[in-house]
Amino acid sequence: MNNKVLTQKNKLTANYQRTKMQKELVLQLLREKGCRITKQRKTLLDIILHEECASCKEIYYKAASTDSSIGVATVYRMVNLLEDIGAISRKNMYRISCGMKCDRENVCLIELDDYNTLTLSSGNLYKVISEGLKKCGYIDSQKVASVTVEPCPRS
Question: What is the pTM of this model?
Fold first, then answer.
């Protein structure tokens, strides 16, 4: 095996171990809070840890496809419970993702320090990102396939 394949395999193993440790820690915190560890709670926790869900609704759709007995209220209660024990922050659950095939206008709003704003279409956003990555020496001839931006707390 070449080094790149081994590195990817090591990352996957490390991610699995990290996620497994996170799951065990969250389950322990739930037990300490007096919660029963049900099949539904384990399913929801797996989805939250392994998937990139932007909302409770997304978690619900993924959970319902696995276990039809899981309802929307169950998802909201679980998310609230995870927030209560400090396992997640709903502020950090949301993510922004856009692929190269997206042709939407106004996908990116940029606020400047002089209070002016710029809006970019997905095509212009990719052009700015690609040119910036090339200029800074991060890429040569590669093309950006997708961009995911996670929000930071506002200061």
Answer: 0.51
Residue type, 127: K
Token digits of residue 54: 């932007």
Q: Cα(131)–Cα(112) distance, rounded to whole angstroms?
A: 20
Tell me what the mean pLDDT of segment 1-26 comes to.
58
DSSP H helices, the chain, are 3-32, 39-50, 56-66, 72-84, 90-93, 122-135
Tokens 């996620």 found at: 19
- pLDDT tens, position by position, 71-98: 999 999 998 898 888 777 766 554 445 5
**Encoded amino acid at 85, one letter:** I
Q: List the one residue out of 47, 49, 43, 50 whose CA is nearest residue 70.
A: 43
Q: Domain-by-domain residue ranges, the chain?
A: 3-93, 96-149
d(CA 93, CA 148) in angstroms, rounded, equals: 13
To the question of domain 3-93 being in CATH 1.10.10.10, the answer is: yes
